[in-house]
Design goal:
Elements: H1 3-28, E1 36-41, E2 45-65, E3 71-76, E4 83-84, E5 89-94, H2 96-131, H3 137-169, E6 172-174, E7 179-181, E8 191-192, E9 201-216, H4 217-224, H5 231-236, E10 242-244, E11 255-260, E12 270-278, E13 289-305, E14 309-312, E15 315-321, E16 327-334, E17 342-347, E18 354-356, E19 370-373, H6 376-379
Parallel strand pairs: 1-19
Antiparallel strand pairs: 1-18, 2-9, 2-13, 3-5, 3-8, 4-7, 5-6, 7-9, 9-12, 10-13, 11-12, 13-17, 14-15, 15-16, 15-18, 16-17
Helix pairs in contact: 2-3
Length: about 375
């Protein structure tokens, strides 16, 4: 190979290498690929918002069962947690003195009846003698007074018998209402009386139950500021409320808010509220921990999925897509109560705004994206 041929081949190799390098440089420095994101164009929607409040349950009546007489517990007819009817025996107290009082009162009645009969015979004997003038009227009046005294003694003996039977009846302790028996701290043989500090048990009437919960002042204003009339009228017009049981299930009976405490607790800024629920099956027991759910209907509001928001420095943002397909972070405010997995926007967005639905936390402001606009029916399916 001569020198000229060698130089020609070397020049051709350099040209090929240079072309390959330029192709790689063009690929590395080319325009970045635009990523696709799901978006939706905001239009006013309607939804039901739920506000949940932790609540404690109390029976309609929690009645302490106390003995009226002193004695030893002879029988316990029920167990803790038993469902009882009004008038059903709960305890038997052994108090022999009351049985003796009944026997004594019965004997006193028989004695008084005999005295009445004797006094009546005396009056009947003296009366014709007075009419014939054989004896004076004084003897008749004396006999009549003796008869009236005997009648009074008979009435007193009857009253003593009634009182003795009442006291004897107190030895059987019965339930005053339909309800559920609470704890029983005493056992057979325990000495009890009306002065015993601890009750025999407690019977909770649970045909209806009360749910007590606290509501802050702002929430109370939100629920009662609309409409006319007094606060009591507004409370009565509030929608039926629901009850979430401790396992998270929804109780099958709706309730109603009945009262709102007139005083706001200055330490907590809350008011105490009471809602009543029917409890025909006795499922809810006094002392249970539950949650009261109050619904609020909103009309023509801007609602966005929670996944379309992110928080930064205690502020909430949504990502808006501009006409140039570039993103902009919008500072938004939302209502405290939620509609499932959605927020109700009170400021920061407008109807017609197109927002990004997912991955907003890692999306930098001013990024150009490829919007994949979703239908409202698909995005808000959970609200329907």
């Amino acid at each position: 190979m001569n020198k000229q041929s060698f130089l020609s081949i070397l020049a051709a190799s350099l040209i090929i290498a240079s072309c390959g390098k330029n192709d790689k440089s063009a690929q590395a420095g080319g325009a970045p690929q635009i990523k696709e994101y799901k978006t939706v164009t905001l239009q006013p929607e309607s939804a039901t918002l739920n506000s949940d409040f932790p609540a404690s349950i109390q029976g309609q009546q929690n009645i302490e069962i106390r003995p009226r007489v002193e004695g030893y517990i002879d029988k316990i007819y029920v167990d803790e947690g038993a469902v009882v009817k009004a008038g059903q025996p709960l305890f038997k107290i052994s108090a022999p003195e009351y049985e003796q009082q009944v026997r004594t009162a019965t004997a006193s009645i028989k004695s008084a009846q005999a005295e009445v009969s004797s006094a009546k015979l005396a009056v009947n004997k003296v009366k014709p003698l007075v009419e014939k003038g054989i004896i004076s009227k004084y003897d008749l009046e004396s006999a009549q007074y003796t008869y009236e005294s005997a009648m009074a003694s008979l009435a007193q003996a009857n009253a003593a018998l009634v009182n003795a039977k009442v006291n004897l009846g107190y030895t059987t302790v019965t339930s005053p209402v339909n309800g559920v028996v609470g704890s029983i701290p005493f056992r057979l043989g325990s000495l009890v009386s009306s002065n015993t500090a601890e009750p025999l048990t407690t019977v909770s009437s649970i045909g209806n139950v009360y749910a007590y919960f606290a509501m802050n002042e702002k929430a109370l204003l939100n629920f009662t500021k609309d409409g006319g009339g007094s606060l009591n009228q507004k409370i009565k017009s509030m929608p039926a409320v629901s009850l979430l049981l401790s396992d998270g299930s929804l109780y099958d009976q709706k309730g109603n808010i009945e009262t709102v405490n007139g005083l706001i607790n200055t330490e907590t800024g809350t008011v105490n509220v009471r809602a009543r629920f029917a409890n025909p099956k006795g499922i809810i027991r006094s002392g249970s921990s539950t949650t009261v759910r109050i619904p609020t209907d909103v009309k023509e509001a801007l609602i966005i999925p929670q996944s379309a928001t992110f928080e930064l420095q205690d502020k909430m943002f949504a990502v808006v897509v501009g006409k140039d397909k570039k993103t902009r972070n919008a500072n938004i405010t939302v209502l405290d109560n939620s509609a499932g997995n959605y927020y109700v926007v009170s400021s920061g967005l407008n109807p017609g705004d197109e927002i990004v639905l997912e991955g907003v936390a890692s999306l930098k402001e001013g990024t150009e994206i490829k919007p994949n606009n979703q239908s409202q029916e698909a995005v808000y399916a959970d609200l329907k």
